[in-house]
Specification:
20% strand; alpha/beta; Alpha-Beta Plaits; 29 helices; RNaseH-like_sf; 8-stranded mixed sheet; hydrolase; Nucleotidyltransferase, domain 5; exonuclease activity; RRM_dom; 6-stranded mixed sheet; 745 residues; RNA binding; single chain; Alkaline Phosphatase, subunit A
Length: 745
């Protein structure tokens, strides 16, 4: 969302009417009083920095939650999203500083990924290895359960698909990939031209209604066509039972199975479009259709519905074999259907049986269903484990559970694509297929061919690191990048009185933001000061508030440095304002250092709209930070807060649109005394145009991989960061779940 940095209260007309100011102060005092009486408190948090282990835990949870009780990470919420695959891209050699220095070049990373986190620095090689061979964090109770679980249950196809602890009907819905694989009609799918889509919600819940559906068909000159349709609701009541006259001549009535005879269809005038309209009226938006091999029924109805439970795939067997509905009803429901005594099947009876089978599975859960019916349904025996077996099993499972082993045992697969297969860790070929690629381009090409074959894919892009190794040392190069970022926070202030000290400069500017460096310049005709703010917002507020200020006869002016690093500074600041992460975020400075007053000052911003969170910088030298970032629930509230100046008592609050993303702590880094000129003389200055080309290529490859991802896939992009000479250069972690256009909020 585009936004403009508006003047804060310091630029407003100081001669506004006294009555208006008085009313505003009374309203603010009233807000403060109410907040004290109600003892409201804002939750103030500091920026969260992720580690490689945090990212690994998220990937473990996504891929293994159906087969193992993996601990859910607290820092990332999936909601009701059912992720099918995970893709990880590691851009080796890149840091957070690279991303924000070349912000405009990372078009896909900026626009396609909805979440960013600062990542603690790590080697790209070690990160890839740790990701694939890390230890899985599971609940203790789950580990004990697996220790005594017989192998015949652990490897059962139902347990491998749904896990041990899945509950609720949403866990047993067919994914879109499963629907495509099982030839279900899907929107835009092959052979689905002219099909009608039901009106359905994007997401269903565990309380959504179930509807059993079954159709009987006759053979016409064009194939099987519907001649009877039945629908039962979740209570078992038949809400639709209609005979349908097909548009084409009937060759075979298939009476033995369908129960349809010429005499039965003779008076019928109902057409397929009529019964389909009835179905659309009867099904609520969150309806879940249940049936046995329901793909054939939906194709015959020329109907597309996204939320389906197929009982033939619920009670699954090895190698894709399926039980007949009659056998499932007899064993599990103790019910006789499709009796040989009666001619033909009753679709109401079949739809009701499928409904009850689904409800039984949901109520019992996969583990109890398998344990109760391992012998009578699947014809398998569950061996009794003696004490020695139990001890052996317990000792075996007391060892750490590695991610590669857990992924393989759950019937899933992983692939590593990159420059060196050794970077994929110590996993066997069965646990992770390795493919060595000679270039980043080959990585993308190979991945696009195998995208649908693996649950987890890890892509290691190493071209930037290789180029950097050939042209410049990593330490000096990062110093160069950080200098360019830091120049955005630099201001020259002056002229100042001749007796000015650094302490006076600090007092003059501290209401705008925390200062990183303050240095007086005495070699100019008049005294000036060079100041470096910790955040871009501090420099922006100083530019707006200081110009024209008079001190001891000196009219002060604040200005940016004038050299080649700052020629495109306005454009880069505009890019920061347009960053989607900052649309609802404002920067507030000159807050009180006293906790209660500070909190009351922050609470006054609730008059502009609901506040989602307040982020405060860490304490510095034992002093509480005087600035904070406020995130509103909507962007309009942020615009309104910036457009109105706030004065609480004798303290003016400085407010502007946020330019710093919420995950970033500072724009400044420790610097060495070595200058750019020194590095250029040593041949360590990296060619800027070469760097820009590399950034564009990397971003383009990220975009190609993202487009190749299937829907409901979790995409993670990692910029590993770098650590050298005791200086940490943090990385970045981008996360987004690719969704269909209908699912986008």
């Amino acid at each position: 969302m585009k936004s403009e940095t508006r003047p804060a209260e310091g630029q407003m007309d100081s001669s506004s009417s006294s009555s208006s100011s008085c009313c505003k102060r009374k309203a603010e005092d009233s807000l403060q009083s109410d907040s004290r009486e109600k003892r409201e408190r804002l939750e103030i948090s500091s920026q969260e920095v992720l580690s490689v282990k945090d990212v690994c835990d998220l990937i473990h949870y996504i891929t293994l939650r159906r087969s193992h009780s993996v601990r859910k990470p607290s820092w990332f919420g999936l909601g009701d999203k059912r992720v099918s695959r995970v893709n990880v891209m590691v851009l080796d050699g890149l840091t957070q500083s690279h991303f924000y220095r070349y912000f405009s070049l990372f078009r896909h990373l900026r626009n396609k990924y909805s979440a960013r986190w600062t990542l603690a620095p790590s080697s790209g090689d070690l990160l890839t290895s740790d990701l694939l061979s890390a230890e899985v964090t599971v609940c203790d109770r789950a580990a004990e359960t697996r220790a005594v679980l017989p192998a015949v249950l652990r490897w059962h196809p139902v347990i491998r698909r749904f896990g041990l602890s899945s509950a609720g009907l949403t866990n047993f819905l067919l994914t879109q990939q499963e629907m495509i694989k099982q030839k279900y009609p899907v929107k835009g799918g092959e052979g689905c031209e002219g099909f009608v889509c039901t009106v359905s919600d994007r997401c269903v819940t565990d309380s959504s209604p179930l509807f059993g559906l079954d159709c009987e068909m006759c053979l016409t000159c064009v194939g099987l066509e519907v001649t009877r349709v039945a629908l039962v609701d979740s209570s078992g009541r038949c809400v639709l039972d209609e005979l349908v006259r097909p548009p084409n001549p009937i060759i075979d009535y298939c009476t033995r199975f369908s129960g349809i005879t010429p005499a039965l269809l003779a008076p019928v005038s109902t057409r397929l479009a009529d019964v389909r309209s009835r179905l659309l009226q009867l099904l609520p938006p969150d309806a879940v259709l249940v049936g046995h091999s329901l793909d054939g029924d939906l194709r015959a109805l020329h109907l597309v519905h996204p939320h389906v439970i197929d009982t033939s795939l619920l009670y699954r067997q090895e190698f894709g074999r399926r039980f007949k509905l009659k056998h499932l009803a007899q064993v599990l429901l103790k019910r006789e259907i499709q009796s040989e005594v009666r001619i033909g099947h009753d679709p109401c009876e079949d739809a009701l049986a499928a409904l009850h089978l689904a409800q039984y599975f949901i109520r019992k859960g996969p583990r109890e269903v398998v344990e109760d019916h391992l012998e009578d349904l699947w014809g398998l025996e569950c061996p009794e484990e003696d004490d020695s077996d139990h001890v052996t099993s317990s000792s075996r499972h007391s060892s750490p559970l590695r991610f590669g082993h857990a992924l393989s045992r759950s019937g899933q697969s992983a692939v590593f694509l990159g420059g060196s297969v050794e970077k994929s860790g110590s996993l066997s070929n069965q646990q992770c297929r390795r493919h060595q690629c000679s270039s980043d381009r080959e990585v993308v090409c190979v991945y696009r061919r195998v995208v649908q074959s693996y649950t987890l894919s890890v892509l290691h892009f190493s071209s930037f690191r290789n180029t950097l190794n050939q042209t410049a040392a990593m330490g000096p190069h990062l110093q160069q990048v950080c200098e360019r970022l830091q120049q955005m926070c630099v201001l020259y202030v002056g002229p100042l009185p001749s007796d000015t000290t650094e302490t006076l400069v600090h007092r003059l500017l501290k209401h705008c933001g925390r200062l990183w460096i303050t240095r007086l310049l005495h070699y100019t005709h008049e005294v000036h000061a060079e100041v470096v703010f910790e955040h871009l917002e501090g420099a922006q507020l100083a530019l707006e508030h200081l110009n024209g200020l008079q001190i001891n006869g000196c009219i002060i002016k604040a200005r940016r440095p004038v050299h080649d690093l700052c020629l495109d500074l306005d454009l880069r600041l505009s890019e920061r304002q347009n960053d989607p992460l900052n649309a609802r975020l404002i920067y507030v400075s000159n807050l009180s250092s006293k906790p209660h007053r500070r909190e009351d000052q922050l609470l006054t911003f609730r008059q502009f709209g609901p506040i989602q969170s307040v982020t405060s910088a860490a304490e510095h030298a034992g002093k509480r930070s005087r600035h904070a970032f406020i995130r509103f629930e909507c962007a309009d509230s942020a615009h309104a807060a910036v457009g109105v100046g706030l004065q609480i008592g004798n303290r003016k609050l400085s407010v502007c649109h946020a330019l710093t993303p919420p995950h970033m702590t500072s724009w400044t880094h420790p610097v060495t005394t070595e200058t750019s000129a020194d590095r250029a003389e040593q041949g360590e200055e990296c060619d800027e145009r070469l760097l820009e080309r590399q950034m564009k290529k990397l971003d383009a490859r990220v975009g190609k991989v993202f487009r190749a991802l299937e829907e409901i896939c979790l995409s993670v992009v990692i910029l590993p960061g770098h650590r050298s000479d005791g200086v940490d250069h943090p990385g970045l972690c981008f996360i987004h779940i690719k969704q269909t256009p209908e699912c986008l909020l």
